[in-house]
Amino acid sequence: MTASSTPGGGSTERRRAKLGPVVFDIEVDPVDPSAVAIGAEATGAAGPRSRVEPAGEPTVWLRHNRIRLALHHLRAAHDEAVRPLLLLHGLGECTPAHPPEVVAAWPGAVWGLDFTGHGHSTIPRGGGYTAEILMADVDAALAHLGEATVFGRGLGAYVALLIQGGRPHLVRGVVLVDGPGIVGGGIGPSAPRVTTAEHSTVTPDPFALAELTVDVRPPDYAVDYLRLAVRYSDLGEPVTLSGRVRPPWMAALDGLPGVRALPAADALTDYATS
Amino acid sequence: MWEWGDPDDPPILFAHGGFDFAGTYDAFAPLIADAGWRVVCWDHRGHGDSDHADLYGWEADQRDAVAVMDWIGTDPIPVLGHSKGGGLLLNVADALPHRVSHVINIDGLPSRRGWPDLSERDRTSLRAGALTDWLDHRRATADAMRKPGTIDELARRRQRMNPRLDLGWLRYLVPIGAFESDDGWRWKIDPSMRMGGVGPWQPEWSMMRLPGLGMPVLGILGLAVEVMGWGTIPSDVVPNLPERARFVPLEGVGHFVHIEQPELVAELVLDFLP
After folding, report:
1. For the segment B203-221, what is each residue's pLDDT rounded down to a tens digit?
2. How far B162 CA sits from the closest chain A CA (Å)?
């Protein structure tokens, strides 16, 4: 365009800014997923930087948009007729190398998903995490596994509730237990802040830790997902609270139709046959 | 990153709305630059010429805004945002008041008014449909591409969401906001993004950043109701205005106030700025 011909009649044209030596979060080199190193084991804070591969069949790699997700096969089924159990880890954790003792009696296969930015899954560039994106991570696992019961720790417990509401026909029961990231960022907008983190080539992604400790979890939002689960699932009680900690989003569920409080092992025994 | 005006003039930061890009300020920004301001605007992540990101979120957009401010300098500067960009800069001004000297908000004051008041049962059905759509969309994002078309077709498609904007203007935007390949033009915006995502966000959360702002604030509201707008009316805003605020509701103007009435908005802004 020539001068005096911008659409609004001004004379100044737009030009590309001359960028100096500033490095933006988003401009770091793309991460090669095969080169992702793994942080401490979920079960041991002083664990090695390279973790033991989970036992069982090879890991399945799933694609969620630009993210490559690791879905680990932890244990074969004792009874092929029973649907798989999917483990969701807590914030900053990853799928353990072996299924925890509490799920030992599950008759079906046991799988564990590494969320975006965790374990063997890709580290995204520049953050942007939400619990809903992790819900869609789980949906990518369900697209592979089909019907499953879900066992979620901490952040994974909240995400388990979301996916039980989001895919009520595919998820047959969720067991929510204590773990890192169970509280979230409170029930409404917190004190104003701009979260920052340093880019890392090692999981867990520091952006995940920064953003998913401030994600807002209003109780009525959690109850909406429970209502979806109750209305569209044919299980009488699709949500089981098996932990001790009751952050507000979880306390809002306690006592509502479709929710029960029960030890995790008992809940799994029940879901395995329903 | 884009600029209008003399690089030695005092800077002002612009933020565009969701699904827009810096070029949508081509009618308005030159009027501010001609008056002696260096206007700086960035394409939000996934929008315009900026890279498509792995993840998107409010926290990430805020961080990007602050990265742009850091690039401009450390002195407090005036900021101007339209729609989503307006809400974003309210948050930044609230979080980092030492970085922002003046806030100008153009139809970026969301209210609950545009949201249907539904029974619990209807709300559950609505959320179920929206969630299923969103999860299905996430399953397809890895291979998603925007629909190609001619410049005229893209302009007409955009006019469905921007019905008050002139087709000639929308045709002008296509070569800026879209790219051409063998089978036609496609909007550059990341195909993984879509209107109306899922999540707990409530419109009043952005409005609640307004009352606490200590710097001068200019709020401009288009009162003609349209598809991209919030349906906010003056009585939603007035009780939330901080002490040093000017508020200008405009009858007969839609959501894209600065595109429909660039001279009028420029006059209001230049009168407000020091």
Report:
1. 788 889 999 999 999 999 9
2. 17
pLDDT over 60 at A35, yes or no? no
Quick check: helix, strand or coil at residue B180?
A: strand
Which 213-252 residues of chain B touch chain A by CB within 8 A?
none
Contacts 24+ apart (CB under 8 A), A95-100: A95/A42, A95/A54, A95/A70, A95/A119, A96/A41, A96/A42, A96/A43, A96/A54, A97/A41, A97/A51, A97/A52, A97/A53, A97/A54, A97/A55, A98/A54, A98/A55, A98/A74, A99/A74, A99/A75
Nearest CA in chain B to A21: B71
Nearest-CA distance from B133 to chain A in Å?
10
Please enumerate in sequence order all residues whose Cβ is within 8 A of that of B262, keeping only pairs 6 or more positions apart, or say none: A7, A8, A9, A10, B27, B28, B31
Contact A10 B33 (CB under 8 A): yes
**Residue B170 CB contacts under 8 Å (≥ 6 apart), including other chains:** B155, B156, B158, B159, B162
Q: Give burial (CB, 10 Å; 0-12/13-18/19+) of A102.
A: middle
Interface of B with A in 82-111 (CB under 8 A): 91-92, 94-96
Domains and CATH numbers, chain A: 47-272 (3.40.50.1820)
Q: How confident is the model at residue A30 (pLDDT cuts 50, 70, 90)?
A: very low
Beta partners for A65? Answer: none
Q: Is the pLDDT of residue A71 over 70?
A: yes
- Whole-angstrom Cα Rg for chain A: 21
Calculate how close chain A gets to B21, using CA atoms only, in Å: 12
Question: Residue holding tokens 């029961």?
Answer: A173
Which fold, B2-115+203-272? Rossmann fold (3.40.50)
Q: Sort out which chain A residues have CB atoms less than 8 A from B133's CB and list them.
A: none
Contact B263 A221 (CB under 8 A): no
Q: Where are the domains of chain B?
A: 2-115+203-272, 120-187
* Candidate from A12, A20, A135 with C-beta closest to B5: A12
Q: Model ipTM?
A: 0.90
> Chain B, 180-209: which have a CB under 8 Å from a chain A CB?
192, 197-202, 205, 208-209
Under a CB-based contact definition with an 8 Å cutoff, are residues A247 and A183 in contact?
Answer: yes
**Which residues in chain A have their CB less than 8 angstroms from residue B196's CB?**
none
